[in-house]
Amino acid sequence: MAASLTWPAMFRAIRVFGRAEQLPRETVEAYFRSRPWGSRISAWTSAQSQPVEDRAALEQAYAAYAEKWPDHGNPDDVPVPDFWGGYLIHCDEVELWGGRRSRLHDRFRYVRVGDGDLADPTSWELSRLQP
Model-level pTM? Predict the structure, then answer.
């Protein structure tokens, strides 16, 4: 699995390589219930990444779900959608790219060399890459 986040106007990018693991349903449900009420309603409102007629259609759908499941301040006021889930990315390589107009870009690559997470410096080898 590979992912890239790019901010062209800022000359910045992050590339991630690794393995994606679908989260267990109980983890997904616990996370969903920890989110604010409005975010839980939005999960039902949006068929994520699908075309929508206009903003008014989104607002109308949101209002309908908000009426169906009002906010009583409980984590289970809004049921967890069957279609809602998540993934955990196990990174093996991360590259940070900082562009420069001169094309002498800064590129740093972290490659996994141990079992720790991204916060454990002994689990990663850092190298500077040529532009």
Answer: 0.71
